Sequence to fold (195 residues):
Amino acid sequence: MSGKEQKSDARGTACGFRLKKTVVMVGMMGAGKTAVGRALAARLGVPFLDSDHEIERAANMTIPEIFERDGEPFFREKETQVIARLLAEAPGVLSTGGGAFLRAENRQLISEHGVSVWLNAPLEVLWNRVRHKDTRPLLRTPDPHATLKALYEARVPFYSRADLEVLSDGVSSIDEMVDRVLAALATRPDVLERT
Ligand SMILES: Nc1ncnc2c1ncn2[C@@H]1O[C@H](COP(=O)(O)OP(=O)(O)O)[C@@H](O)[C@H]1O
Ligand SMILES: O=C(O)C1=C[C@@H](OP(=O)(O)O)[C@@H](O)[C@H](O)C1
Ligand SMILES: [Mg+2]
Fold:
């Protein structure tokens, strides 16, 4: 059976794999956490959750609207609440927002209940993916490329604390990235069991 055709049983367990812990995607904006996380969940036959999406749904506002009306500290509080709630659910794939792994409380929650995967993409790949979008309020500055670079440099020391790192070269497709994440997860029998 090929990857895309894998069926899930009633417990959301994909043929070929059994996920024991929630996979938490971390890394910079534009790294592909949402896109690769969603495709990974489909491949594994487990639920997909995105913390940004959950925050938007609960607030009935977009992320830029939340930042504008309530400020970043409010957003960060909501982000921690949502991550704690989602990690209490059955194993799945949880894509976080790019700032989530900077907070010690979030890292603690993630290491207790899940396994963190850093999608590490070079700055220019990130830039090419975010430059035409206005959905990321932190990049609404006079020089968004310089802002992205500064964020990248400040955040790498935090992301490098993730349990696993997967390189995103800007050429590999989303499906190929899923293959790479699965290969990384396969090194962790406490996370992914081949059935
Ligand atoms: N491997 C990839 N190949 C092609 N496009 C990608 C890849 N990964 C992500 N993208 C695209 O890049 C953009 C940013 O990805 P997204 O998943 O939103 O990143 P993040 O959630 O990390 O900010 C989206 O348009 C997404 O479809
Ligand atoms: O890097 C960040 O601090 C942020 C990244 C965004 O998510 P993505 O990483 O999914 O774009 C979103 O949470 C918000 O705009 C803040
Ligand atoms: Mg995202």
Remarks:
- The chain has a mean pLDDT of 93.
- The radius of gyration is 16 Å.
- The first helix runs from residue 33 to 44.
- The pocket of adenosine-5'-diphosphate (ligand 1) is lined by residues 29-36, 95, 129, 172-174, 177 (CB under 6 Å).
